[in-house]
Amino acid sequence: MHDTETNAHSLCKACGLCCDGTLFDHARLAPEDDRGVVDAAGIRLRDDRTSFHLPCPAYKDICTIYDDRLRICGEFRCNLLIKYMEGTAGYEAAFEIISRVKALSSKLRKQMADITGQDGQPLRSAYMTVRAIGDDSHRAMLLDYAVLLHHIRKHFAKSRSGA
Length: 163
Fold this sequence. Notes:
The protein is built from seven helices and two strands. The longest helix is centred in the middle third of the chain and has 26 residues, at 91-116. It has one domain (3-156). By secondary structure, it is mainly alpha-helical.
């Protein structure tokens, strides 16, 4: 496997923000996805039965079904990965961005779980719960969430044009 492709897989495995509920709260299943893998991994389908809830239970700081992952998981490319593959972002710089964003996401996830009493929620859902509480003592955490969103939009989200 080419070094760029090997490193891309390494970045993807090190990141997991698309799996852990930071970037998304659900993902679509493809008709060809192996339902045995879905069931064995404990992946919870949504009511529509064509998508599943995130965070993915197969993600435990690394994807435990990476070699048999679902189609959407294998095809998704965040903006940072695309930039790395195109040569406009270096490996070390991409890894540093991933590390910083994961640390902030982890910090926020813990703080939000402490406030809501619910662990394992997608980050946006936890944020909405905390925000609804309306307690001024959570302002610093809500500001950290805004910083996280900035990093997500800048480094991970694809533009509307698909680039």
